[in-house]
Amino acid sequence: MKPETAAARRSDSTGTALVAVGTAVLVAGGIAFQVLAGRKLGTEQFAPIGIIWTVQFIVTSVLLLPVQNLITRQLALASGGVEHLRPERSKVIAVFFIAIGAGTAFALATVNRFFLGEMLYPVLLAVTLTGRGVVSISRGFLAGRRRFIHFGESLAAEGLALIVFGVAVFLLAPSTIAFAACVALAPFAVLMVRPFSRTSSGAVVGQSAVVDYEHPKGFLEYLITATGASQFILAGGPIVVGFVGGDPVAVSVIFVTFTLFRGPVTSAYNFVARVLPDFTAMARDGRVAETSRWLRRITWGGFGLTVVGFLGGFAVGPWLVELLYGSAFAPARLIAGLAGAGVGAALGGLFTGQIYIAQGRTRALAIRWGGALLAACIVVLLPIGSADLRVAAAFAVGEVVALVLLGFAWVRGWPGEADIARIRA
Fold first, then answer.
1. Nearest Cα to 191, choosing from 151, 270, 138, 145?
2. Residue 412: its pLDDT value, please?
3. What is the mean pLDDT of residues 376-400?
4. Residue 2 class from Cβ within 10 Å (0-12 exposed, 13-18 middle, 19+ buried)?
5. Shortest CA distance to 276 belongs to which of 304, 298, 306?
6. Burial code of 27-54, b = ≥16 C-beta within 10 A, e = fewer?
7. b or e along 256-278 (b: 16 or more beta carbons within 10 Å of the residue's beta carbon)?
8. For the residues of 25-79, what is the DSSP string, one character each?
9. Which one-letter DSSP state was computed for residue 196?
């Protein structure tokens, strides 16, 4: 994955470093904000903040991140030009409003149960999801035009906005509504970096070669399907435990364990925006051998992380959970090990999936994640062990199956050098 000029390489290197720094600032800002709000409000008054945070995470992961990936890929294909976005514009707008509508409808339907009967919370959730939509579109433009420096700055800007807004509310007018407004307004900090400007950092805006897999039918629909399946495996554990007979203690243990352990995957979402333009350039230019090498590296790296994750989770996972949440939340060692293994495999699957997106093979991506979800469901239904152990095992199995299906089926269906030469001729 090499940019074309020395200046571009330096810009990309600086951008990658800033993406890492920006991710750290965003994570720190989120944790600091939650600590400030939680300590000031208490568990009961903090609950609406937690629900808003959860809903925005689910809606963003399932609906809005695919929009960001689509925009990134199409701009990368056109070397930063917007011509490849026009056929997808109506779909992007539709998903944008579906995301806002779905979250708002949920808030309206559960306003008495989750939001203390206060009708202002659905409004704030709608603003929050609008901001998340703006973030996804903006960061799609930034990554697609290789403006990685500004991408990193946008991450840091959101994290700093959360801290500044949170401290101000904490000191001046602490209330649940005020803290919820902070969550709603912070995403709009992305606009500070002028994401839709054609000014670039190392990118060249120009024409691209056109091949017939640039606008595959159903690209976004299949990508959303794949993302939905992957997110259910990654984040659905606490809900599944309750459905298969787990008691409230098991639900809480799985929730805090999975939430803590999947932190590396959540942070990695920012780094896939860094690699997707490069994988897209490989697909556009027909560099099949180079792409296959990267896929093999990532796949085997994912298996290595799976082993490391299992050993680390088994050895220190219960201690880490107990240190942060208290002894009542500490999982069994095997559950912690399986959670760590699942996270390691999930990291590999996340990055191998970017190659499928770059190639426009979102249908194949959806089929493979569907197979992984089926494998996870089979494990959950096996009459073996406790509910929380089966859910942890299902998570690990689902992620490993996804990594296998994604990593060891890379040749079939990909355009070869001769195919691309024929198309261009």
1. 138
2. 41
3. 90
4. exposed
5. 298
6. bebbeebbebbeebbeeebbebbebbbe
7. bbbebbbeebbbeebbbbbbbbb
8. HHHHHHHHHHHHHHHHHHHHHHHHHHHHHHHHHHHIIIIIHHHHHHHHHHHHHTT
9. T
Distance CA 296, CA 214 (A): 24
DSSP 201: S
- Residues in contact with 297: Cβ distance below 8 Å, sequence separation at least 6, in sequence order: none
Backbone angles phi, psi at 194, to 5 degrees: 50, 65
Q: How far is CA 210 from the centre of its chain?
A: 29
Phi, psi of 213 (to 5 degrees): -100, 15
H/E element holding 279? helix 263-285
Residue 370 amino acid letter: G
Lowest average pLDDT, out of 242-246, 283-287, 363-367, goes to 242-246
Q: Which two tokens stand for residue 160?
A: 């700093």
C-alpha–C-alpha distance, residues 371 and 419, integer Å: 29
CA distances from 26 to 29, 132, 301, 320, 371 (A): 5, 14, 26, 22, 33
For residues 9 and 17, give the distance between their C-alpha atoms in angstroms, rounded to a whole number: 12
Radius of gyration of the chain (CA): 21
Q: Are 205 and 79 in contact (CB under 8 A)?
A: yes
What is the sign of the dihedral through the CA atoms of 273, 274, 275 and 277? Answer: positive
Condensed to tens digits (0 to 9), the pLDDT of residues 26-82 reads: 888 888 887 788 778 776 777 788 778 878 888 888 899 999 988 988 888 877 677
* DSSP category for residue 358: H
Q: What is the DSSP string of 113-144?
A: HHSTT-THHHHHHHHHHHHHHHHHHHHHHHHH
Taking the CA atoms of residue 392, residue 248, residue 260 and residue 59 in that order, the dihedral angle to the nearest 10 degrees is 90
The amino acid that residue 43 corresponds to is T
* CA contacts within 13 A on the Cβ side of 339: 33
Residue 27 near residue 263 (C-beta atoms within 8 A): yes
d(CA 100, CA 259): 24
- The pLDDT value recorded for residue 16 is 79
How far, in Å, CA of 237 to CA of 244, rounded?
Answer: 11
Query: Helix, strand, or coil here: 222?
Result: helix
